[in-house]
Predict the 3D structure of the following.
Amino acid sequence: TSDVPATASAHPTESTPRTLAPPETSPPSETTTAEPPTMGSSTASVETVTPPTARCGPGEFDCRDDKHCVPLGLLCDGVRDCLNGLDEKCGGRNQCEKTLAFCPSGSPDWCINRNFLCDGHNDCSDGSDETVCGSCPASFCLNGGHCNVLAAGERPTCTCPDTASGERCELVAGSSAELQIHSSAATAWAIAVPVVLLCVGVVIIGFHYHRRRRTLLSAPVFLNNPSYDAASDEARI
């Protein structure tokens, strides 16, 4: 029995099975998760889509930007109401005088008398002449102008500050349109003043010429006739 190795009897527990505790596991991280999305949930971000606004109502013009509508009565009035300027792309059809208003339908005519605006009757076939009446549309008066409705059903008017002018205060002092107006007036005066001075000069010269001619015709004629005793004798014709 002394031939048995001492190491075999010194560690008898090595042959006994050992109970091992299960290794600790960390909670799954977001970077290691590869679970497919279920039918009821999704990890993908959802993009919010804003639905387009409703179409414009009767008597309104669609700016075609899904945001803005303007009254038909403001079309082709020289003021851009749509941000994209679509309400002023009228070609040569908006050449109405200041005493006239534009009729978008062209019926009965492209231009009607401004006295027909807000008279309670559709003078334009599309009724555009009755769409800006009794209230102030959004941004009707520009550049700090104040909108006024003097009586029920009437067309609004604008009280402009000193720096603006026009029906809707659309003209600002120093703007291209304002400068064009002043330039046209200055050009007219520059042409008119020399013409008037020239006419006055012609009249003055003509008057003096006519007066001098009459003086020469009515002057006495002196005859130096040897038959007279004195050379200074005067004979009138």
The longest strand covers residues 60-62. The chain has two helices and eight strands.
